[in-house]
Amino acid sequence: MSTPGNKLPPLKEGFEDEFGPIDAKVYQAAGEIWPKAVTFGEFALHDRSLVFNLMMKATADVSKAIAKGGNIKYLDAYLLRTFKRLVVHEREKTLPRSEPLSEAPEAIQNIVADLDRKILAQEVFTHLNNIDRAVLWDWMRDYSYQEIAERLKLKPPAVRKRLERLIARLRNIFANSGTP
């Protein structure tokens, strides 16, 4: 397989690479996070083919976890975390011994945290019902409770209550994911 641009190439059923068998669902998730992951990987490693190999290794690792019966609730976030772990490990190999990983450039740490938050938020957003998604979307676009209520034919206190529950749910998910 050649190094992809902004999309991963199609996968044949039952594909296996040097890292092991690849689950089609995991590969699809890898394709969805690839544009974001490649940005981080290239920033950290400056080698697109190495970044692609690490994504395929992460995809194989997650596929193995699922094959062993692992229940992965947020596949995109789990796959990204696996990929990041591999990139950071690879980056650590290139750092001089005097520069420990915990002191990696702050820019890399910020990119990692930002990617985690974006992918996890995107994953969570897809699991919301239509009303909650509309309420959250309008709220993020700075509509008032009254404006959201009018648009969705709800009462303003109902909108406020929904937002409180959604924000608490998102905080809980982010807190449990280890994302800053």
Give a written overview of the molecule:
Strand 1 and strand 2 (20-21) form a beta hairpin. Mean pLDDT is 75; it is low at 97-103. The radius of gyration is 19 Å and the shape is elongated. The chain has 7 helices and 2 strands. Strands 1-2 form a two-stranded antiparallel ribbon. Helices cover 69% and strands 2% of the residues. It has helices spanning 24-45, 48-67, 75-94, 106-126, 130-140, 145-152, 156-177; strands at 16-17, 20-21. By secondary structure, the chain is mainly α. The protein folds into 2 domains: 1-105; 128-180, Arc Repressor Mutant, subunit A.
Average pLDDT score: 75
- Whole-Å distance between the termini? 35 Å
Number of strands: 2
Question: How are the strands of the largest sheet arranged?
Answer: 1-2
The largest pleated sheet is described as: 2 strands, antiparallel
Q: Kindly state the percentage of residues in helix.
A: 55-70%
What does the overall shape look like? elongated
Low-confidence stretches: 97-103
State the helix count: 7
Secondary-structure element order, as H and E? Answer: EEHHHHHHH
Characterize this entry briefly.
The protein has helices at 24-45, 48-67, 75-94, 106-126, 130-140, 145-152, 156-177, and strands spanning 16-17, 20-21. The protein is mainly alpha-helical.
Descriptive labels:
7 helices, single chain, two-stranded antiparallel sheet, mainly alpha, 180 residues, Arc Repressor Mutant, subunit A, 2 domains
List the helices and strands and how they pair.
Blueprint: E1 16-17, E2 20-21, H1 24-45, H2 48-67, H3 75-94, H4 106-126, H5 130-140, H6 145-152, H7 156-177
Antiparallel strand pairs: 1-2
Helix pairs in contact: 1-2, 1-3, 1-4, 2-3, 3-4, 5-6, 5-7, 6-7
